[in-house]
Predict the structure.
Amino acid sequence: MVRIFGFLAGLGFVSALLWAVATTSLTIEHDPVHARVQTPRALALASDGVLGHFDRGQLQRGFKVYKEVCAACHGLSLVAIHDMEDLGYSEDQVKALAAEFTVPSINPDTGEAATRPAVPSDNFPSPYPNEVAARAANGNALPPDLSLITKARHGGAAYVYSLLTGYRAVPADLPAALRPATGLHYNPWFATLNIAMPAPLASEGQVTFDDGTRATVDQMSRDVSAFLVWAAEPELETRHAAGWTILGFLLVLTVLAYLSYRSIWAEKKGH
Amino acid sequence: MSFPWAQQYAPQNGLMKWVDERLPLPRLVYNAIGAGYPVPRNINYWWNFGVLAGVALVIQLITGIVLAMHYSANTLVAFNSVEHIMRDVNAGWFLRYAHMNGASFFFIVVYIHIFRGLYFGSYKAPREMIWLLGVVIFLLMMATAFMGYVLVWGQMSFWGAQVITGFFSAIPLVGEPLRVWLLGGFVPDQATLNRFFSLHYLLPFVIFGVIILHVWALHIPGSSNPTGVEIKSESDTVPFHPYFTAKDGFGLCVFLLAFVAVTFFFPNMMGHPDNYIPANGLSTPAHIVPEWYFWPFYAILRAFTGNFLGVDAKLWGVIAMFASIALLFFLPWLDRSPIRSANYRPLYRIFFWVWMADVVLLGVCGVMPAAQPWIILSQIGSIYYFAHFLIIIPLIPRFEKPLPMPNSITEAVLGKPSSAAA
């Protein structure tokens, strides 16, 4: 009975699928946008791989790029200012850094909305009070918060680096429908080919690095990408170190477990 | 259950004797996973995965209970409370990554456990009840995993909830009201998130309960084995402890090595980047894809692209997707071959591996966008999936000539005359 019913049900599903095959067009539709979007260019960072760690000098340079360029439009709302000590800044430097930012507050006397200088325990303030304000200031485009950007895009840091260095002249063969509309900029690493953000890192020396590194567009892009990896995964070094310790412990345990397994089964033939 | 030669519990000291006389819990443990449980001596490493699945559940329970102490099921702060765990809670990143990857590893070991059952015919009499309870656990796991994924309240969480609850709207007449009732609103929102959190906390304990029944049912006939030949004498078995506690201990270490390697070094390997973007009901992701363990079922859902027999394509897809799992409940009666192990079923063995390849194909189709050639591939894959269980498996015994089998497990192990590979 079960088999008869099952057979009929199977026949039903198979027929419905064969009908679906027969009625569905086999044409492979090529998405003209997708065909032109580039895969991220390779970017080698110290934080890559299972031995990855942060290059503190690069993080500091990257932070400077963020602070002087990106921060005008992009928030870093999940990162606390005191986290900067992890980049190698001293407590006093971080205090001074915090004082450069203004955060919303409440006037203790009147209860009115007010502002105050940030303290290290504040998170980085976002450049716009809300999404409407952000869109209003950016031609209806929303600059995303960068706290998790390297985890929130396929390709991670390589994507950020490719995008920052990816502004190109509009190719002559680009169909009219794909050409950037007013206020958009051609960048074949962006999912729709045309991005609202103008090239943020456009000229050498836009940022002056404290360590004397030559601030080429490529260098600034690499450094800020490295910094954003840290912003998204500040636990990376702790995680890698803990991982190796646990793996080491487990390897010893695995060998011991295997030896005891062998010894317990020793007298059982066939194993 | 008991084989006549099963060792009996003898308390080692006065305290255990005292406890055992008042509450025979030590005896229960002894008979369940101790020296009092005789196990086929020839079961191979594929039999480790039941214990591993149990360990995976415990990992999820422990990490999940602690995560719940720091998580907030409120749409305004849920996403940031996960990031609070990642950044501010002591070792919070470990708890969260372990829980996130623990779910994937739970599915990996459970899938291997299921494939082992399919290959070695573990679902056949007298073990049907173990199999049925196993399918129940699998369904509960899927519900739990889905709701847990929504809790992160990222883009994939939100749109996954939208798509999956949307299945119910395909049901005629009651579909849309049912969907609204399940969500507690017209779109996933606060009511949805809060109830999913409640259920996500509840269901693992339900799973735990069904696992107890699953293991209880296992102890009636005892474990199956790679030959599929039933236990005949004491020499066919060894006591669970120390033989299989040792083997499972080694297996557990290997499992943990893999789990730790992924959790600490590639924690986002099995996740989707879009779920690091906060949920936004006004912005639909380019491709909504579920977690990898749902890909084959998602492919079956999307394979039905034409209305057929007056039934909407979407409804066909939803029915087929649920049927693709529900048919496992009937498997013990669909397969009437008396031979359990595929080692002795030359025809079934071929179809089993074709089916395995088919599941992989469906998985790939499930993650790809709903466009050709993936549509036709998922249709072919789905045809084989249903044909395999509902047409081919019931028919195989008519044509199959089983290979000669060993007379006993002992014979298979010790290589006596006419023994086949164990």
Remarks:
- Residues 190-218 of chain B form the longest helix (29 residues).
- Chain B touches chain A through 68 residues (CB under 8 Å).
